[in-house]
Each structure stands twice: as structure tokens, then as C-alpha cells.
Protein 1
Amino acid sequence: MNILAKLVFVNVLLVLASIPNVTGGATPIWRYKGDQGPEYWPGVCTTGKRQSPINIERTKIRKTFDYEPLVLVNYDRAPKKIAILNNGFTAKLTFDNSETGWSAKIQGGGLPGTYQFEYLDFHWGSKLGQGSEHTLDGISYPMEMQLVHFNTKYGDSMTTALEKSRNWYDTLAFVAVWFQLRSEDNPKLEPIIKTLEFIQNDGLKFQTPLFPLMDLLPENTEHYFRYNGSMTRPTCNEVVLWTVFRESVDISIAQLKKFRQLTFGNKRIKRILDNFRPINDLNNRPVYEIDTYGVGSTASSISAISCLTYLVFVLLLKLLM
Ligand SMILES: *[C@@H]1O[C@H](CO)[C@@H](O)[C@H](O)[C@H]1NC(C)=O
């Protein structure tokens, strides 16, 4: 069987099971434009002073070099199952850890605790020049991925954490990754790209081939921006510590177009496009630029070893010549 046939085989039951859950038709309480658009989102979405996303202005940033490196636990291991869902707003991936005890976590890097991965999703534009939620010096990227984590000291899921934390600023940690257009396909995105056509419509769920989360991150995870903000959709809770990686991940226009083909709605089917919230006032919040390159024991011992390897290599070369 080729990969596609296998995928179809594995997923037939899943698709059948998910059909009764199709949410298309139900009236949504919010949208990205129109009379349910961001300017009409309720509660703290409008009244809050620490809302996300923001524009990151590099001239106003505080540089910090004294954090421990960000530690990504199990980001390099694939889980047993990865599900992808079209929820009418985005493509959302959940990683099943029920059988193996696999769970990805982040800590260090100035985070006040250990945060467990819950899901990831994407925000993209209808055309170039827009798509990302966070912007850098006023410039948008064509897509942004967000990895959602909850503080394990408040419980064992995002829902319990949100209930228990009393809206404290350290409840959730979101990691944002910008995507940048390249002429070549990014092969590491293929497990996701290939399955997008099976979740074309609102409410459809499917399984993707397995891959580690690391495949979706930039090579450099030591350089990032950090600020206190909120969830970027209602209910906009101001409980999120944001980590926005400086280095972006590559995507081709053909791959991006697969995201733009997803649809929502039942009777009047529309494409999911421009599913990003506009930027919000910073309101004097500090934004930090963190670079932990060379900080901490692992990083320095690795560079010491590679230095030594290099010296031995140069010596050998000289001896041979
Ligand atoms: C976030 O807010 C908390 C509580 O007000 C504060 O202690 C912390 O320094 C802030 N962190 C950042 C990155 O601004």
C-alpha cells in the first residue's frame, strides 16, 4: 500500500465516527469578520488591557540574556496518534498520549513553571502580506502556528487549569512560530499538508502520519520574544505567557494554499481565510527579547566538545598534508 492508501484505510472509521459531530450549521458566537468580528467580541476581549496578539517593535524591546535555556521535553519524540480537526476556525492538531504516557512539556527560559502541551493550531491569510497574528515591526508573516500549553501546577488539562488558576497570568504558555515563504516545499510539513484534503469541511477529523513536534519548530529555539498577553479568540482570557520564536519556519505557496482550501459553514460554504485577530495595544507592557545561546551547562559543554573536535580535525589535516 502506498502512503495515501494507508492513510485512507486508517482513517475511514475515524471519518465515519466524526460525521455526527459536524458543527457546520450551528450559529457561531464569533467570527473573524462581519457583525461577529473582533470589534464585537465580548467581555475582556474589548475591555482588557493585556490582549494578544501585539506588534513586536524591536526599538522598544528589552533585551535579556540571563535566562536559563528553554527546555523542550518530548518535543523530539512522536506520540502514538496525531489527530487533525477542521473546527470551522482553523486546523487543530491534538497529540494522543493516553496509551504511552507521552506528553510534551516546556520549562525554563524564564517560564514560571512546567507547561504541558495540549494542542496546536494555525492562522493564515487570504493573500500575501497578511496571515500571522503577531507582527514584527509592523510586518505580517503569511502564517503563524500556535502551540498551547497549560501550567501543570493547576491541573492535568487546559480546562482544569483555567478553572483552578483564578485567571492568574501564568496559567497558559503559548508558543508562536512564524512561517516564511520559500520556493521549495518544506518536507517536514507534509504529514499535515497531506491530510488537509481529508478535513476540507467543518467538523471533519482525521489522523496524520506520526512526527515529533520538533519538526514544526525553527532550528533556533534559543532566540525569542516574551510578553504577558491573552488568548487570541473569545473568551480572550489574560492568562497567557507568550513565547514568539524569532526564527521562522519555511513553507511553499503550494503548501500554504492547502490551508486556504479549508472551509466552514453548512449551507453557505466559505473558505477559512484571514483567521487572525488584529493586533492590540501594548498598554505599556514590557516585551522581552531573550537569547540564551551559549547559556547553561548543556549548551556550553556541547560547544566545548565541538571546539575540541574541530582542533583535532585541523591537526589531523596538517599531519596528512
Ligand atoms: C507578567 O506579569 C507578572 C505579574 O504581573 C510579572 O511578575 C511578570 O514579570 C510579567 N512577565 C513579563 C514577561 O512581562
Protein 2
Amino acid sequence: MVFHYASPSRQTLPVEDATPDHQVHTPSPASEQTIETSDTAANDPWRCTERSSRSDAAGREVTLQRAGGLLKADVALTTHQGETVVRKDYRLWQRTALAPLARYLMKREARMLQRLSGWAHTPEFKGTDGRYAFYMSRIDGMDLGEARRRSVPVRYSEIQRMVGELHRFHVTHNDLRWTNILVTPEGRLVLIDFASAFHAAPRSPLRPIMNRLRRADMAGTLKFKQKLTGRGLTPTEQRLKTAPRWLSMVRRGWKHQMLPRLKRH
Ligand SMILES: Nc1ncnc2c1ncn2[C@@H]1O[C@H](COP(=O)(O)OP(=O)(O)O)[C@@H](O)[C@H]1O
Ligand SMILES: [Mg+2]
């Protein structure tokens, strides 16, 4: 299904320690644009050929993703204060043992979007809907995986630049993947899904963790390099991509110990 939407213009976010030539893209107001996604759970609504006008979309909700997996949210296109927006909703988990965690994830992501408000590479936060859901601006375009499949030109250096800029706001994303980067028709890249993101102020005692996470984010972008440019990794990049032992252990512990336990509840 294809929806039309005019994206709002954005303001520039002041960057504390940005380089002098730092630039923030201000998207040109678009007239009629579309979005498509390759997220398996989110594909169906977008894949049908029926075209839907903006007023159709304004009148009803369209599911982008159903809360399938553990602590996944329902994501839907909806109307809020007369605007077409996206709602990310963890309500499925209320009255379960995971309710506090669901509320925490929602608050965390909402806070992160507020923190990054004005940056051209995130959706704009549009308010909360109770304790389990929040609204954000809807991004036109397609996700990075879809862009690659359709040979839409995306420069890897732009991804690196965007992630570097995010780090200068003292935020790491921690979940950089093909479905969490959207590409607008003008070629603007937009990061979504900040549920795992992390912030540490410059003089915070958490800075060492932050530095590790920055490195992991940069390493996370390398999987895009190979696929988008066709070029192999340099030895330095290869080293960066190899996760440190402690991180591999944490990941293994999460996957094989914590996750199965949580799923039993
Ligand atoms: N602001 C947005 N604009 C357009 N599509 C979005 C937006 N936020 C999420 N989506 C779509 O919904 C999907 C799921 O959202 P996401 O926040 O990544 O959820 P999850 O945490 O479950 O991965 C995304 O892959 C994307 O296709
Ligand atoms: Mg996601």
C-alpha cells in the first residue's frame, strides 16, 4: 500500500562538539511521497498494490508491524492531532511480567527522540499515548534493505557520517540494521528504533561504556559497507568488526540464558 505524506521541515539541532564544517540536512518539504519496508513483519500493509490517498490513511490505522517477538511493539500509521504519524505501542505487554520492561523501553525511546529533536536523521517525537505508546513523525521512503534491493543509490559514507554525528550528541544507537535505517526519496537517511540507544554525558562515569558502544556502532556499519560498496574490509575494519570477547560473552548469555528464561514467563 502506498501512502502520501508531506514531511515537515526540521530545525537544526545544536551540536556540542561538532566539527566546524558540521552540517545538518534540512529536508526539503516534500509533496507526495511514499514509504516501503522490508521488515518481514511489516511488509504486508505496504506490499499490496492498492493505492491509498492521504485522507484514507488519515481515517484509519494501518499496521506496519505486529508485536510478534519478545517485547516487540505494535507499530502503526495513525492520526494524532490531525497529522499522519507513526505510533509505537507496547500495550500488548501490559498485565504481563514484562510490563515494567515494556514501559521502560517505551520511555527510553521516547526520551531519546526528544533528546535528538531537531536532528534531520530521526523522526520527530510527537507525544505519548498512555504509558505504553508514543507517536513520532512518519518517515517517507523505504528501509535500507529495500533500497539496496532496488538499487537505490545510498552512500556508505553518509551512513558513517550520520552515525558519527549521532555520537557527537553523546548517543549510541546499538541496533544498527537494515530495517532501522530509512531512506527518503530525497536520499536523506533516517535512524529509527532507539529502544536500545544509550546516552552518557561527557563527564559521566559511564563514558568508558559509551566509548565501547561507539566502537560497536561503527563496527555495526561495516556490514553495510560490504553490501553497498562491494568493497572488502580493510584489516583495521576487520579488527573493529570482531567483537571483543566480553561482548560476545554478554551476547551469548543474553541469547542462550536470559532470552529463553524471559520467553517462559
Ligand atoms: N517513524 C517511522 N516512519 C515510518 N516507518 C516507521 C517509523 N517507525 C517505524 N517504522 C516502521 O516500522 C518498523 C518497526 O519499527 P521499529 O521501531 O524498528 O520496531 P522494532 O523495535 O520492533 O524493530 C520499521 O522497520 C519501519 O518499517
Ligand atoms: Mg527495528
